[in-house]
Design a protein that fits this description.
single chain, 338 residues, Rossmann fold, eight-stranded mixed β-sheet, 8 strands
């Protein structure tokens, strides 16, 4: 197995985070590289802390969780691996059987860690059951645009499938699942999978960003929910500035504007209604359907962006998790390919 259990969790130190605006709010659009690095270190430490479990939820005891790393060209990529614990009643054939693979990509864009998603990823590992590998992708920064994170998502998927025997997975039963910026990364990975001849069983996109072109903020939901409790327009403007630096063509990084969405894996698109990027998910589901790709759109009224990562404070996360689990189980248990 291409693994390294010494891959480190994010630091919990706070650094010299500077809050520049009145009321203790960060001035997102004026944030410097130094401010961003300090904010990321503090915030990721908070998200990875035991105290945050009250918000992000407790992992499912039916799965083990371990940090490992993938040896990719020119770099090692940390991944958080969730593996089901087979009960005492499981026979030797069950223990030896190859598991389905679910590649997960967390949200956050310029901040975030796979730890924040342990509640749902461990549940999927235990209840499908499946090997769930959550990618600790490169975060957006002045020297790390969205293309780097997109490469991490695809390269991790490609590596795991090519080394399926080492990981104990069945490459013919593979799905991808992403949240927010991770939804964008996995949508791009699904497109690249089709181009590479990899037949995915399913893609799950939760409150995905799908448009980083100049029209990113023109969708009605961006205006209607510009200052939602969990994602604001200023944060999205910083996201876009880091994602597609000046001179970068944003269309190849915008699934909503992809030239060809035919013959992709069936999609479940989960949209919280109180979200500035809600229309990104809605429009992408429409485009998938128009291209002949199966796409189920499920909306959650009164839910905000990233609600699936906050089951401790947003009860609707339970219903979303149940639907995601059912969708993936049906796709991964189905005989044959897509």
């Amino acid at each position: 197995m291409s693994g390294d259990s010494s891959a480190r969790q994010p630091s919990a130190t706070s650094g010299g985070l500077r809050q520049q605006a009145l009321g203790g709010e960060l001035d997102w659009e004026a944030m410097t590289a130094e401010d961003l690095a300090a904010y990321r270190e503090a915030e990721n430490g908070r998200r990875a802390s035991a105290a945050m479990r009250a918000i992000t939820g407790m992992p499912d005891p039916g799965a083990t969780i371990d940090w490992q790393s993938l040896a990719l060209p020119g770099r090692r990529l940390p991944v958080r691996v969730h593996r089901p614990v087979l009960g005492r009643g499981a026979g030797s054939a069950d223990r030896a059987a190859a598991l389905p693979l679910v590649l997960h990509v967390h949200g956050g864009g310029f901040v975030g860690t796979a730890v924040q998603s342990d509640w749902i990823t461990s549940h999927l590992a235990a209840r499908l059951p499946a090997l769930v590998v959550s990618v600790e992708h490169r975060l957006l920064a002045p020297d790390s645009p969205l293309s780097a994170a997109a490469d991490d998502g695809w390269d991790a998927l490609d590596h795991l499938v090519r080394h399926a025997a080492d990981w104990g997975i069945d490459p013919a039963r593979t799905a991808v699942f992403g949240e927010s910026c991770g939804g964008l990364i996995t949508a791009l990975a699904a497109i690249r999978a089709r181009q590479a001849g990899l037949r995915l069983r399913a893609q799950v996109l939760v409150n995905p960003v799908t448009d980083v072109t100049g029209t990113m903020f023109d969708h009605p939901s961006a205006t209607r929910h510009a200052h939602s409790p969990t994602l604001t327009l200023p944060q999205l403007r910083l996201f876009r500035r880091l994602a597609v630096p000046s001179g970068t063509d944003p269309r190849p990084l915008s699934p909503l504007h992809a030239d060809d969405l035919t013959d992709l894996a069936p999609a479940l698109v989960v949209v919280p209604n109180l979200d500035p990027v809600a229309d990104h998910g809605r429009r992408y589901a429409e485009r998938l359907r128009a291209a002949g790709t199966s796409a189920r759109l499920t909306e959650f009224p009164e839910a905000t962006h990233a609600f699936v990562s906050m089951p401790g404070v947003v009860p609707q996360a339970e219903a979303a998790r149940a639907e995601i689990t059912e969708f993936l189980r049906n796709a991964l248990d189905r005989p044959g390919g897509c």
